Amino acid sequence: MDDTIMDVDQNPAAVGELFETVTVLMMRHVPAPDGLSLTAAATLGSLQRRGPQRITSLATAQGVTQPSMTQLLRRLEDAGLVARVADPTDGRVVLVELTAAGDETLRTRWITRLEHLDKVLQTLTDEERATLQRAAEEALPVAQKLVHSLAARY
Questions:
Q1: pLDDT digits over 45-63, tens only?
Q2: Tell me, what's the pLDDT at 6?
Q3: N or C: which end of the chain has fewer CB within 10 A?
Q4: Contacts of 53 (CB under 8 A, 6+ apart)
Q5: Rounded to a whole number, what is the largest CA-CA distance in the chain?
Q6: Strand partners, 86
Q7: Distance of alpha carbon 118 from alpha carbon 132, whole angstroms
Q8: Which residues have CB under 8 Å from 154's CB, separation 6+?
Q9: What percent of the chain has a predicted confidence (pLDDT) above 90?
Q10: In what order do the strands lie in the sheet with 90-98?
């Protein structure tokens, strides 16, 4: 058996530590200067990826209460980033959708963060950057699979 696979099976803390380190890097050291909270950005991202959704679905996916999500959506709606629309299959149901301004905010946020990340990565040696690039190319599809399988539960 491959020693790498055995090590991960025996020590999931190593994977957890990697995820924690990457999260700290991206959240603390590669900020987005748009003033969006993590929950607001994640909600907009969910709407961008999955299309219009019910408030209850958004609340569940973000791990917040429905009243909290309603308040957040009201602020995002006031900012022109989301809009409430009727469900085409059931007019009694209200869905929330991303507006063009919300989509542009996410695109600008991503570009800004990538530019900042590039500056951070320039502090590493060429070899260190190459190591991170190889690791990202191998780990990204696996991490995306994990995220998609967990997201399917909501």
A1: 999 999 999 999 999 989 9
A2: 47
A3: N
A4: 46, 47, 95, 96
A5: 58
A6: 94
A7: 12
A8: 57, 60, 61
A9: 66
A10: 53-54, 90-98, 82-87
Nearest one of 153, 154, 148 to 69, comparing CA atoms: 154
Q: How confident is the model over 102-144, as pLDDT tens digits?
A: 999 999 999 999 999 999 999 999 999 999 999 999 999 998 8
| pLDDT tier, 5 (very low <50, low <70, confident <90, very high otherwise) | low
Q: Which amino acid is at 127?
A: E
Instruction: Tell me the two tokens of residue 143.
Output: 């991490």
Which conformational region is residue 109 in: left (phi greater than 0), alpha (psi within -120 to 50 degrees), or beta? Answer: alpha
Q: Could you write out the DSSP letters of every residue in the chain?
A: --HHHHHHHH-HHHHHHHHHHHHHIIIIIS--TT---HHHHHHHHHHHHH-SEEHHHHHHHHT--HHHHHHHHHHHHHTTSEEEEEETTEEEEEEEEE-HHHHHHHHHHHHHHHHHHHHHHTTS-HHHHHHHHHHHHHHHHHHHHHHHHHHTT-
Rounded (5°) CA angle 134-140-141: 115
